[in-house]
Amino acid sequence: MKVLNIELFGPIAPVVMAKDEDEAVKIVNSAELVFGAEVWSANKERAKGLAKRIRASFITINGKAKPDPRLLFGSLKKSSIGREFSHYGLKEFVNMKTIVVSK
């Protein structure tokens, strides 16, 4: 579906059926644009294992994947460059300088 490979800015929630967890991970990881992901499960340990397999920089378990200024946010794929929020994100807005003094 085209909706899975374009940036959406609105209340749209495409639903894709997968036969098992492996296929679900394959579907998510094949998407070109992934900001965040959600894993919903009564078994939190199983959900943590699944979250580790998903290629996204922001994953929530049993909660909404929404930006929070205290947490690092950004994309690993084609939808953005760099990171925002948290102390790591602040480094995206500064120019670092290296000075080397030889003997």
Overview of this structure, please?
The protein has 103 residues and is an alpha+beta fold. The chain has one domain: 3-Layer(aba) Sandwich (Aldehyde Dehydrogenase, Chain A, domain 2). Helices cover 24% and strands 12% of the residues. The chain contains three helices and four strands. The strands form two sheets. The protein has a two-stranded parallel ribbon with strand order 1-2. The chain has a two-stranded antiparallel sheet with strand order 3-4. Strand 1, helix 2 and strand 2 form a beta-alpha-beta unit. The longest helix is centred in the N-terminal third of the chain and has 10 residues. The mean pLDDT is 76.
Write the layout of secondary structure elements.
Elements: H1 21-30, E1 36-39, H2 44-53, E2 58-61, E3 73-74, E4 83-84, H3 86-90
Parallel strand pairs: 1-2
Antiparallel strand pairs: 3-4
Lateral arrangement of strands in the main beta sheet = 1-2
Q: How many distinct folded domains?
A: 1
Mean pLDDT: 76
Quote the beta fraction.
Answer: 5-15%
Helical percentage: 10-25%
CATH architecture: 3-Layer(aba) Sandwich
Going by helix content, strand content and strand pairing, the class is: alpha+beta
The ordered string of helix (H) and strand (E) elements is: HEHEEEH
Rg: 17 Å
The CATH homologous superfamily corresponds to: Aldehyde Dehydrogenase, Chain A, domain 2
Number of helices: 3
What is the β-strand count?
A: 4
**Poorly predicted regions:** none
Shape: elongated
Query: Any idea of the CATH topology?
Result: Aldehyde Dehydrogenase, Chain A, domain 2
The termini sit apart by 61 Å
